[in-house]
Amino acid sequence: MRNHFFILCWFVVLIHIPQVHSKELSPSESLQVDMIASGLGVPWGMAILPDNTLLISQREGTLSKLNLKTGELQTITGLPAIRVDGQGGLFDVALSPDYASDKWLYFSYNKDVQGQGATTLARARLHNQILVDWHDLLVTQSTTKNNVHFGGRITFDHHGHVFLSVGERGIRTNAQNLSNHAGSILRLNLDGSVPDDNPFVGDNNALAEIWSYGHRNPQGLFFNQQTQQLWAIEHGPRGGDEINLIKAGKNYGWPVISYGMEYWGPIAVGEGTEREGMEQPIKTYIPSIAPSSLIQYTGSTFPNWHGSLLAGALKSQHLNQVILNDENKAIAEYKLLRSVDGRIRNIIESPEGWLYISTDNGRILRVKPNHSAE
After folding, report:
1. Can you tell me the distance from the alpha carbon of 61 to that of 296, in angstroms, rounded to the nearest whole number?
2. What is the pLDDT of residue 28?
């Protein structure tokens, strides 16, 4: 009877989820997709340098630089020891908002701490294809032998702050425990110190770096400079991937509330889908797409995409476009690039308004308007 009750609850949840119109292809844009590199392992993060080269971090613990004009690939040396195991390894790479003057590159990676892994934020400079001045800014309090749910995505608000996502490391209770960093999004000053206005500064029962909590495994994080809003996308279990608009000090519910089911049976995770004091997602995916990255398109090269959220899908292998209304409600969804034939790991927007996309089978793709179709 107990299992039957949970199954009934799950169907009730499905009935009450706001329905978002979904289509296989968007009629608004014609796309040209070119493969510009391959054989790169798992290209986890990407960042475009001012000299029109692309830094590519690979989960296997390798950093490469791709000349976007010639296609030449170079290996960058100087990385620290990286714990490469399971989902852990080298994660994101991002340019400082003040890169033109300070030359800092920011990295996230899995650091070995007494035989356990910890999501770590660091920065270094690039000199003659070698990383120098490497500094770990924060070795998060997220250590466990579990090799899953590291988070690891980096973004900046361009007001002197860097954000880092940290997964709950496969230990669900971590996400509601403010005495560790797991299951949280963190906010730091660019030098790794704690901003005075972080929501839990002065709270003896919480770590001051925490900006929001109650997250499962947020692998997409994007700060929109135009709207001054922070977006995140995270993996649910079996169903229940979420897009959230992140606000200071808020609790996003995992694992107390969830739209997902247990892997081992048709049992809903948590104690329902809503609870007072816990935030609701902007969008939920059932079934899961297994999201890996997120941007909000801000360019004009694809004018019909402006303001859309674009997420990479690992499991369902497509680029997921979510249309928002003026109140940031998800009102439509399109499944793009279904012919890519690969798990989309990362998406970035170039200065030209193009997209660069990485796939888990080691490819880098460039997406531009297909003017020949006009």
Report:
1. 28
2. 53
Name 161's Cβ contacts closer than 8 Å, sequence gap at least 6: 187, 188, 189, 190, 195
Amino acid at site 19? Q
The one-letter amino acid at 351 = P
Calpha distance 126→134 (Å, rounded): 10
Q: Per residue in 326-336, pLDDT tens?
A: 999 999 999 99
**Tokens for 96?**
């400082």
In angstroms, the first-to-last Cα distance of the chain is 60
**Cβ atoms 307, 281 nearer than 8 A:** no
Does residue 306 contact residue 297 with C-beta atoms inside 8 Å?
Answer: yes
Tokens of 44: 């986890």
Distance of CA 153 to the CA centre of its chain: 5
CA 194 to CA 134: how far, in whole Å? 19
Q: What is the pLDDT of residues 1-35, one digit of tens each?
A: 444 444 444 433 433 334 444 454 454 568 999 99
**Which structural domain, as residue segments, surrounds residue 75?**
2-373
CATH of the domain at 274: 2.120.10.30
Distance CA(318)–CA(365), nearest Å, equals: 13
Give me the mean pLDDT over the 193-220 stretch: 98
At a CB cut-off of 8 Å and minimum separation 6, what does 183 contact?
166, 167, 168, 169, 174, 175, 176, 177, 213, 214, 215, 216, 254
Contact 155, 230 (CB under 8 A): yes
CA Rg value for the chain = 20
Rounded CA gap, 367 and 73, in Å? Answer: 19
Encoded amino acid at 137, one letter: L
Model confidence over 43-61: pLDDT tens digits? 999 999 999 999 999 999 9
- Identify the bridge partners of residue 223 per DSSP, sorted by sequence position: 230
Closest CA to 163 of 151, 171, 147, 175: 151
Write out the catalytic residue numbers: 149
Domains in the chain: how many in total? 1
Asked if residue 371 has pLDDT above 80, the reply is no
297 within 8 A of 307, measured Cβ to Cβ: yes
